[in-house]
Amino acid sequence: MKDTIQGVERFDSPGKGRGLRVTKPFKVGELIFSCPAYSFVLSAKERGSYCEYCFNRKEGLARCGKCKKACYCNATCQRADWSMHKLECSSMVAYGPNWCPSETVRLVARILASMKTQKERNASEKLMLIGEMQTHVEDVDNARREVNESEIAGLHRFYSKHLDFPDHSALLALFSQVACNGFTVEDEELSHMGTAVYPDVALINHSCQPSVIVTFKGTTAEVRAVTPMKKMDEVMISYIDILYPTDDRNSRLRDSYYFTCDCQECKTQSKDKAKLKVRKRSDPYEPEVVSGMVRYARKKMGEFRAIKSEKTPSELLEMCVQSLDEMGTVFDDANVYMLHMMYQAMGVCLYLGDWDGAIHYGEKILKPYSVLYPAYSLNVSSMYLKLGRLYMGLEKRSRGLNALKKAMAIMEVAHGKDHQYMAELRKEIK
């Protein structure tokens, strides 16, 4: 923990190990602290849209003269990124279309390079801090272990020219650390931009009733209060999407982070009934009918993730529609499994350029989202943004402005009023 961060201290959180707490009150929307990335990598899919070094989004980025892939704001950004980009530049040219390390492999390569070249004396200590009590090598199942072994093979294949690797067990530990502590860097619509590691943010424990939210300004993480915080309150974020019912949330936490949450919401399960809402009828559904449809929904969600990259958009949309028709025989439209599949359908419609279809699903999603998510949820603001921009594109200005203003009200708390996204959104509204 950096000594320069005012108002926050590290402490031993009961039952959780290390954690962070505030040493003074914070208001909703107030910045608690910001944290530069120890290491970061821009998604290969976003090259050309964002600067490789500062993650600035702008038109007219300059491409690297050698690989023709990496893009930068200017020569200053390109020079600053060279120590990392040189790990990939010549390799991308040599392998051509066969250059295909995963984003995790790319991040691990940069972490190893940072450990070697970073001038600050505590570089290795910071890396150890990232994975403190969250390595869990011994807890990894066979499927995850196979993935890690494949990732290590990719690391050796694509980066052996520029890096000296630690032994195999150390690499396994490092990949496990990144899996537990890496952050997905997202834009204002929650689109994936890249992956990064933030040592100080990694100290924050999980709750399904988070007190703070993490957003990104370029490659820097910013932690802001989304509930009023008193002196000595613990800083809590959600590691997962909290839309889903208690069993689903804790299954995800066990699979990815190796613990079960015991927050007040998990103890009371107070929102589960609303999240699993069924259709009204005079003769209530038998419990086994509802539980059977829950199993069906979970199965379809897993199938959709598994085949997403293999099917055409039209096939994926058909799968969404069929799943919604089947679930709709029991579930209300506000049921979270219905919302999940509607969200997937909306994404496919956006990809296909079916704006009316996207609006149809977005409008059905928005009201339940506003009820089931916390007041300052990025999931809600991103939905307002998407719908607002769709309305404006279809010249439905009144609806568009209303949606954009509602997005801004949430984003001013989550991102801060001085964020670039706020400036861009104000221009859209004007």
Automatic annotation (TrEMBL):
Entry-linked Pfam families: SET, zf-MYND
Domain MYND-type, chain residue ranges per copy: 51-89
The keyword Zinc appears for this protein: yes
Gene3D superfamilies attached to this UniProt entry: 1.10.220.160, 6.10.140.2220, SET domain (2.170.270.10), Tetratricopeptide repeat domain (1.25.40.10)
Gene Ontology cellular component list: nucleus
Reactions mediated catalytically: L-lysyl(4)-[histone H3] + 3 S-adenosyl-L-methionine = N(6),N(6),N(6)-trimethyl-L-lysyl(4)-[histone H3] + 3 S-adenosyl-L-homocysteine + 3 H(+)
InterPro entries in UniProt: H3K4_H4K5_MeTrfase (IPR050869), SET_dom (IPR001214), SET_dom_sf (IPR046341), TPR-like_helical_dom_sf (IPR011990), Znf_MYND (IPR002893)
Keywords from the named record: Metal-binding, Methyltransferase, S-adenosyl-L-methionine, Transferase, Zinc, Zinc-finger
Molecular function GO labels: histone H3K4 trimethyltransferase activity; zinc ion binding
Residue intervals of the SET domain: 6-240
UniProt-listed Enzyme Commission number(s): 2.1.1.354
Class of this enzyme: transferase
Name under which the protein is recorded: [histone H3]-lysine(4) N-trimethyltransferase
Organism expressing this protein natively: Gadus morhua
